[in-house]
Amino acid sequence: MHENRVLFVDDEPYVLEGLRRMMHPYMGQWRCDFVSSGEEALRAFQEKPYDVIVSDFRMPGMDGAELLEKVQQLYPDTIRIILSGYT
Q: Quick one: the chain helix, strand, coil %, rounded to 5?
């Protein structure tokens, strides 16, 4: 049986904690992981690809657009979503 996997990426710990609380009721349906940078996200994908990635747009280092572009190239079947209060 396939385990649905979603990865949340945000450099703000409070945002990640809010997302974790929001996703708690769905933990039986989704395996949710939370990381704080694009680099961490790409490392997580190397272990086992995700079905969905939800990334903040504005992050230091690798921003969300760059991260999702890399995910598109490396893991084209992954659904990519930007989460931002700015755009």
A: 40, 25, 35
In this predicted structure, the answer to whether residue 42 has a pLDDT above a threshold of 90 is: yes
Residue 61 backbone zone (phi > 0: left; psi -120 to 50: alpha; other: beta): left
Distance between first and last Cα of the chain? 37
What pLDDT shows up at residue 34? 96
Residue 65 φ then ψ, to 5°: -65, -45
DSSP letter string, 2-41? PPEEEEEE-S-HHHHHHHHHHHGGGTTTEEEEEESSHHHH
| Whole-prediction pTM | 0.91
